[in-house]
Every structure is written in structure tokens, then in C-alpha cells.
Design goal:
10 helices; alpha/beta; 238 residues; Rossmann fold; 5-stranded antiparallel beta sheet; single chain; 6-stranded mixed beta sheet
Length: 238
């Protein structure tokens, strides 16, 4: 589904990522673990097209979206099945919840189909349905995260990327989001979940990558990583 090879990226003269190799199979949920400033958001922004990498390649569903003489615009990447729920959610606070979610269907012109997708989002996120006419800025952090994920799902992505799933949220809300992630995965959508909390990351994904100072330093099955002494020492305080 997604294959990243030797990807290096950054901003202006500042390099953030070095030679990233990463893949996600169809229907697979993969976690990207790393501390603040490791380059996790830069990697997601490179995949979706918000950051132009310096070198390397990105293949999605067998098609090159970035490589030598190739750089498909973000809008086109969304059309072919990529979507991102960004860190910080980036909702429009004065617009209603429903208006915010509907923005995710910008590639769809059929109003009936947009309405059908909205209904699917309300089934997946009952709490969001209860607040659909409320201004998004009045919601709790957990509710805003649900709206951001629902908005990203409105384009019916083959690959959903979520940047910092649990950041700043109460444990009870995180548990709800983890269940929702499992439901999304069961529908066949591939997921790349960026997360600082290793316990959360490895509970939503069967496989994970560890990113440190812009480089992949470890990868493997979640259970194996959770029992790795380096991971326990660096991220779990064991």
C-alpha cells in the first residue's frame, strides 16, 4: 500500500529526516514511535505532500507520488486515497462540527454521497453526532480529535494517517479512540499512527517503527518492541 525508500526531508536548509525506509501493507495498522522533535510529523507531511522531500521515493498503491522528477500535489494524493488527521487537529472553531467534518469531502461533488458519508461518521463517532450542530471550538480535546479523524475519513481513504492520536487526552478518551482505530482497521483501511506514548502506539498497531533524531533506529512487531530493553528504558522508564 505504502512504500517509502531512502527518504530525506526537511525545511529550507534544515534537514529533519535521513534515509527513511518504511512500508505498510494493505489493511495493516502501523505505529510510528518517537519523542517530540524526532521528525514524525515531517514524515507524515512528506507522505501527504505538504513537505517536498530532498531525495528518496514514495510509492502509494503501486504508483509513485514522489521520486525523481515526480511530485504529485497533495490534492491528487487525497484523490487516490491518502488522508491525514494532523497534529493539533486544525479545526475551524466557529464552524459547526458537521461543517468541519464535511470539509473532508472536498473531492466529492455529489451532495447525496457526502450526506451518506456523514451518516457513516456519526455511526462511528456517536459523541460527534450528539454535538454536530455545536461550534467545533466548544468541544473537549477528545471530541475535537474525533472530529479531526472523521473529517480525514470523509474522503474514503485507503490510507489514514493520524498525527499524535492521544496527545493531551484523558486515558478514558484514549481508550475510546483505540477502539475506534480498531473499527477503522476492520473496514480494510490501512493506518499509520504517530504516537509518543509507546503503550498506546503498540496497543493500536501490530507492527511499529521507532524514529530518533530523523532516523529509523528500530522496527518490528509491537509485542517484540514492547519487551525490548531499549524501548522499556527509553520510553517506559523500566
Amino acid at each position: 500500500m505504502l512504500k517509502i525508500a531512502k527518504l530525506s526531508a526537511g525545511y529550507a536548509d534544515t534537514q529533519v529526516l535521513w534515509d527513511i525506509d518504511l512500508y505498510i501493507k494493505k489493511g495493516e495498522t502501523v505505529a510510528l514511535i518517537g519523542s517530540n522533535g524526532a521528525g514524525k510529523s515531517t514524515l507524515l507531511e512528506s507522505v501527504i505532500g505538504l513537505v517536498k522531500p530532498k531525495s528518496g521515493s514514495i510509492l502509494f498503491d503501486g504508483k509513485a507520488v514522489f521520486g525523481e522528477n515526480i511530485n504529485i500535489p497533495t490534492r491528487e494524493r487525497v484523490k487516490i486515497g491518502m488522508s491525514l488527521a494532523p497534529q493539533g487537529r486544525h479545526l475551524f472553531p466557529d464552524m459547526t462540527v458537521e461543517e468541519n467534518i464535511a470539509l473532508g469531502a472536498f473531492v466529492e461533488k455529489d451532495r447525496l454521497k457526502i450526506k451518506e458519508e456523514l451518516e457513516k461518521m456519526y455511526e462511528l463517532f456517536p459523541r460527534v453526532y450528539e454535538r454536530k450542530n455545536h461550534p467545533a471550538g466548544k468541544l473537549s480535546g477528545g471530541e475535537q480529535q474525533m472530529v479531526a479523524i472523521a473529517r480525514a475519513l470523509m474522503s474514503k481513504p485507503k490510507l489514514l494517517m493520524i498525527d499524535e492520536l492521544s496527545l493531551g487526552l484523558a486515558p478514558v478518551i484514549v481508550d475510546v479512540l483505540i477502539e475506534i482505530i480498531h473499527d477503522i482497521s476492520k473496514s480494510g483501511t490501512s493506518l499509520l499512527v504517530v504516537e509518543q506514548d509507546v503503550q498506546v502506539a503498540l496497543s493500536v498497531a501490530k507492527r511499529a517503527y521507532v524514529l530518533e533524531t530523523g532516523r529509523i533506529v528500530m522496527e518490528g512487531k509491537s509485542e517484540k518492541l514492547l519487551n525490548n530493553p531499549q524501548i522499556q528504558s527509553a520510553y517506559l522508564g523500566i
